[in-house]
């Protein structure tokens, strides 16, 4: 399942540089997560790094993009292959 940033985001800028997949970017009013790039850090870390650093707990799982660990791993592998 990809993650999403809610409107509780305070634009503190700490999540964007933590994302190993470059899935986080500044949106019109708050940061946004590209569900096509978000693997919840599967393949990189044991826990989502953006969630770890968020001071306001505004990064839940996105119910519109439900994925299991195998799907997240496959997405990670596809993203890494595209970087080569």
From TrEMBL:
InterPro entries: 4Fe4S_Fe-S-bd (IPR017896), 4Fe4S_Fe_S_CS (IPR017900), PSI_iron-sulfur_center (IPR050157), YfhL-like (IPR047927). It comes from Gallionella capsiferriformans (strain ES-2). One of its GO terms (cellular component) is cytoplasm. Pfam families: Fer4. This is 4Fe-4S ferredoxin iron-sulfur binding domain protein. Residues 1-29, 31-64 form the 4Fe-4S ferredoxin-type domain. Keywords: 4Fe-4S, Electron transport, Iron, Iron-sulfur, Metal-binding, Repeat, Transport. The lineage of its organism: Bacteria, Pseudomonadati, Pseudomonadota, Betaproteobacteria, Nitrosomonadales. One of its GO terms (molecular function) is 4 iron, 4 sulfur cluster binding.
């Amino acid at each position: 399942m990809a993650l999403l940033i809610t409107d509780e985001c305070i634009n503190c800028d700490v999540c964007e540089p933590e994302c190993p997949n470059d899935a986080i970017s500044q949106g019109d009013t708050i940061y946004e997560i590209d569900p096509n790039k978000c693997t919840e850090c599967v393949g990189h870390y044991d826990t989502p790094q953006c969630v770890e650093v968020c001071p306001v707990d505004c990064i839940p799982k996105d119910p519109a993009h439900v994925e299991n660990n195998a799907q997240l791993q496959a997405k990670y592998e596809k993203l890494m292959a595209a970087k080569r």
